[in-house]
Amino acid sequence: MRDLKGLPDLNVALVQTTLAWHDRQANFDHFDELLEQAVGADLVVLPEMFTTGFSMESSTLAEPESGPTTEWLRKQAQRLNAVVTGSVIVLAADGSHRNRLLWARPDGEVLHYDKRHLFRMAGEHEHFTPGERQVQFEVKGWRIRPLICYDLRFPELYSELRAAGAELITAPSAFTAVTGAAHWEILIRARAIETQCYILAAAQGGVHPGPRETWGHAAIIDPWGRVLAEQAQGEGVLLARRDALEQADIRARMPVVNHRRFFSQGAQRPAQQD
């Protein structure tokens, strides 16, 4: 049984802003200023497609796997002495376009996760290739599983992440104003309750060409489903501390992962009791 009580507390930061449409450098410059507010965090989460806005123009916006955003993130991680993460449009080595979360560590290593569930209502599946695998990262011993936006609507995926040992899940997003008003808070709180994980849901906000309005409401949710911090509108940096003792207590008092009886075909079962 993994002893969460032995983990140190984790300081996290989420960023919400209105992005400069298709202007990578302008977004870099703006985040340079915003991230001054994230000093002291161990993990900093930026929104989905944080260099361009949520765009389907992948043929003109995709950058190489070790492109300018990789280098910018690496510098930010070193400057803040923290992991800095968010998703970007990438031209993968196989020639496909990916909505790729980059995970930049202070030591210079950059890892990645490719979004698995593409938002078909916006035609994302016509321009991008979905990811094929799930990954796990660690920060100060915490097991962290990255997901992106539309992945939120698939609870079985979150159940699999919990069974695989997830303790914190990142969800950089760009929900529309319509779907966000109806579903955003319900989804992020439900996923936290189901998995008994912290959910770090960074978000875009504001109006973009198209016209497309994003919902904002970036939030940090605890394993009991409580909203610890929220940025409803406008821009801001949310700060919170992940409490290992409280998470351990929630899982001990309600060990739902041990009571699960239904599994999708091929699903991973918990290897050990919590």
Structural category? alpha/beta
Query: First CA to last CA: what distance?
Result: 5 Å
What CATH calls the topology is Nitrilase/N-carbamoyl-D-aminoacid amidohydrolase
* Count of DSSP H/I helices: 7
Helix proportion of residues, in percent? 25-40%
> H/E order of the elements?
EHEHEHEEEEEHEHEEEEEEHH
Q: What's the CATH class, please? A: Alpha Beta
CATH architecture: 4-Layer Sandwich
Radius of gyration equals 18 Å
The overall strand count is 15
The largest sheet, given as strand count, sense and whether it forms a barrel, is: 9 strands, mixed
Strand portion: 25-35%
CATH homologous superfamily caption: Carbon-nitrogen hydrolase
Number of domain modules: 1
Q: Give the low-confidence spans.
A: none
Global outline:
globular
Please state the average pLDDT score: 95
Brief characterization of the structure:
This protein has helices at residues 24-34, 58-61, 68-80, 155-163, 177-195, 244-253, 256-259, and strands spanning 10-17, 43-45, 63-64, 83-91, 97-104, 110-114, 137-139, 142-146, 168-170, 198-201, 203-208, 212-215, 218-221, 227-231, 236-242. With 274 residues, the protein is an alpha/beta fold. The strands form 2 sheets. Strands 1, 2, 3, 4, 5, 6, 11, 12 and 15 form a 9-stranded mixed beta sheet that branches. A 6-stranded mixed beta sheet has the order 7-8-9-10-13-14, covered by helices on one side.
